């Protein structure tokens, strides 16, 4: 479905064009819509409407504590919960869930869409095994279920999996973040004109099911699945970096900035930067359509301003983009930024803060002019700019020592995202 692009050339851009593009990008950065639905289940069930199954929030997840079993041969969800928000048109559903693990080989869970009522809806079922009632894309019409597409791949109930269900027009596709599926097409796909307007939700045919988060966006940003940390590059002695500024050391399984440079007062940018060298031959570039992942942390200090950054679109020390995270928030950190000819501009603010000394998962999706930033699985910022649509990737900080435990970047061919 896609392949990595390991380009090793740097194209310089004209300064005037860069500044003009930045102004346009900054002006339109606020145009990105917020998610239609975003539930993390940290404290309550949010907008979920509980159906059968005894749904409740506990331990940061939404799940069933009294699951109902379906009748023999029945197609549908005997356990079901849907969100109060009605959505329509092209949507993307990201949900991290798993069925409860039992001694059997038929633990199942479902992602529901187009829900009208208990007798009319669509759903995608995943299972440890495959039969005529689960593991596929299904429609329930007037209480009778039909399989629209079969899915032969099993999914373990031993760990949570993030699934992306896209509905674009009449086409429904399922993607998963499992390592052995990285680089393949959708796990299942089907075409139907049923229920283009309705609610989304979760459920199962027979099993208890646990949901860690649920997010729905309009006009799906990517057909590619979300990230799983197990897919990402873990540092070792064969994965060097190219230090640009600051004192960097390679540990056993991580890179660390141990001798940071302090930025000048009021400056926007990274006084400490290192670029990835996956190939060992030169800095790798990511294209206009790319995804970037880092598991990183800012070193804990006595201040409340410990910061860390992911760098992308890097051309040279005075021209690049970066996402900054901080324990606090000011005009120079905690946001999406561009540096053009040495001058920094904030494209979008990030109000969610991090904690020094704690690792955080950061993912940056870039599709042409659009940028999405996820922190620990939650969307925290969107921005638009046509600056630096290709460039090197890396990490850094404005002032602080940092550590990077995992880092991964990949580009996609145009039209294959």
Question: Can you walk me through this structure?
Answer:
By secondary structure, the chain is mainly β. The strands form four sheets. Strands 1, 3, 4, 6, 11, 12, 13 and 15 form an eight-stranded antiparallel β-sheet that branches. Strands 16, 18, 19, 22, 27, 28, 29 and 31 form an eight-stranded antiparallel β-sheet that branches. Strand 3 and strand 4 form a beta hairpin. The radius of gyration is 22 Å and the shape is elongated. It starts with 14 loop residues before the first helix and ends in a 6-residue tail after the last strand. The N terminus is likely disordered.
Summary, kept brief:
The protein is mainly β and 417 residues long. Helices cover 3% and strands 48% of the residues. The chain has one helix and 31 strands.
């Amino acid at each position: 479905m896609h392949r990595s692009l390991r380009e090793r050339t740097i194209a310089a851009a004209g300064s005037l064009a860069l500044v003009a593009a930045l102004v346009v990008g900054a002006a339109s950065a606020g145009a990105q819509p917020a998610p239609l639905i975003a539930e993390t289940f940290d404290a309550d069930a949010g907008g979920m409407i509980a159906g059968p199954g005894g749904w409740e929030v506990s331990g940061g997840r939404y799940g069933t504590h009294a699951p109902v079993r379906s009748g023999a041969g029945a197609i549908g969800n005997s356990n079901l919960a849907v969100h109060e928000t009605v959505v329509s048109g092209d949507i993307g559903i990201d949900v991290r869930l798993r069925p409860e693990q039992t001694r059997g080989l038929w633990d199942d869970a479902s992602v529901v869409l187009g829900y009208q009522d208990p007798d009319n809806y669509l759903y995608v079922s995943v299972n440890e095994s495959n039969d005529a009632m689960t593991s596929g894309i299904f429609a329930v019409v007037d209480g009778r279920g039909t399989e629209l597409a079969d899915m032969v791949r099993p999914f373990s109930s031993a760990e949570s999996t993030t699934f992306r269900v896209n509905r674009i027009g009449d086409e429904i596709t399922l993607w998963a973040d499992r390592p052995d599926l990285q680089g393949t097409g959708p796990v299942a796909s089907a075409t139907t004109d049923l229920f283009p307007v309705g609610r989304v939700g979760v459920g199962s045919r027979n099993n208890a099911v646990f949901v860690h988060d649920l997010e729905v966006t309009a006009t799906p940003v990517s057909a590619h699945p979300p990230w799983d940390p197990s897919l990402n590059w873990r540092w070792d002695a064969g994965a060097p970096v190219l230090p640009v500024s600051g004192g960097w050391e390679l540990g056993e399984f991580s890179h660390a900035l141990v001798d940071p440079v302090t930025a000048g007062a009021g400056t926007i940018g990274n006084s400490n930067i290192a670029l990835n060298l996956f190939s060992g031959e030169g800095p790798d570039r990511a294209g206009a359509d790319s995804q970037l992942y880092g598991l990183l942390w800012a070193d804990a200090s006595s201040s409340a301003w410990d910061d860390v950054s992911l760098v992308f679109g890097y051309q040279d020390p005075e021209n690049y983009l970066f996402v900054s995270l901080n324990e606090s928030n000011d005009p120079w950190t905690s946001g999406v930024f561009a540096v053009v000819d040495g001058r920094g501009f904030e494209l979008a603010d990030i109000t969610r803060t991090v904690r020094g000394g704690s690792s955080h998962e950061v993912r940056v999706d870039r599709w042409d002019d659009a940028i999405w930033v996820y922190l620990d699985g939650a969307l925290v910022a969107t921005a638009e700019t046509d600056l630096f649509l290709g460039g090197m990737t890396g990490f850094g900080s404005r002032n602080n020592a940092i550590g990077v435990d995992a880092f991964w970047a990949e580009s996609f061919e145009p039209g294959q995202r």
